């Protein structure tokens, strides 16, 4: 099983509510490694690239207004099946539908203000990481305890 990288955004509502640490903690505790991270404001231009598949939909204007309203935390997390694992940790799109135990299901009750973004496939992850990070902003980090989190078999 190959190691993967995915883009995670802690959206403006997560930053404004002061729960960045609690959300981050879940990724660290799960064993996903943060290999890039920054606080930044999404521009309209970046929104139209990031959400290119949603441009023109009824909710698009509201989505962009929300996502550009205040800074967000962008991060790259790495691990076995990182894309799928992160999506499961996030829960269903609307917090109202998300299972308890997921980030959206534990921290939110809104539909649109759903706290977190995670890429939906390895291909999307590559594309989206390229929008948010320069190559030199992502790191190869080996940590002393890594062998107890991910085995050689996991690395593939
Ligand atoms: P996800 O964020 O779970 O990958 P998505 O890619 O379908 O969901 O949509 C991107 C964001 O747009 C989502 O986090 C919230 C918003 N959104 C999606 N569908 C919506 C809808 N029908 N009404 C309002 N907002 C919506
Ligand atoms: Mg999506």
Bound molecules: 2'-deoxyadenosine-5'-diphosphate, magnesium ion
Structural class: alpha+beta
CATH class: Alpha Beta
Strand order of the largest sheet: 2-3-1-4
- Assign the CATH architecture: 2-Layer Sandwich
* Structural domain tally: 1
Task: Report the biggest beta sheet as strand number plus sense, adding barrel if it closes.
Answer: 4 strands, antiparallel
Q: What percentage of amino acids are in beta strands?
A: 15-25%
Q: Kindly report the CATH topology.
A: Alpha-Beta Plaits
The low-confidence runs, each spanning 5 or more residues with pLDDT under 50, are none
Q: Can you tell me the CATH superfamily?
A: Nucleoside diphosphate kinase-like domain
Terminal residue distance? 5 Å
**Share of residues in helices:** 25-40%
Give the helix tally.
8
Order of helices and strands: EHHEHHEHHEHH
Please give the number of β-strands: 4
């Amino acid at each position: 099983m190959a190691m993967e990288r995915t883009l995670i955004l802690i959206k403006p509502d997560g930053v404004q509510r002061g729960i960045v640490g609690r959300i981050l903690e879940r990724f660290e505790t799960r064993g996903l490694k943060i290999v890039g991270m920054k606080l930044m404001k999404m521009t309209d231009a970046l929104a139209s690239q990031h959400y290119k598949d949603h441009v023109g939909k009824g909710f698009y204007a509201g989505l962009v207004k929300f996502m550009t309203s205040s800074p967000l935390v962008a991060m790259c997390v790495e691990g076995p099946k990182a894309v799928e694992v992160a999506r499961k940790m996030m829960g269903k799109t609307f917090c109202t539908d998300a299972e308890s135990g997921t980030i959206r299901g534990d921290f939110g009750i809104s539909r649109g203000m759903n706290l977190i973004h995670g890429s939906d496939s390895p291909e999307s992850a590559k594309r989206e990481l390229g929008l948010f990070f320069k190559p030199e902003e992502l790191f190869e980090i080996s940590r002393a305890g890594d062998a107890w989190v991910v085995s050689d078999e996991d690395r593939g």
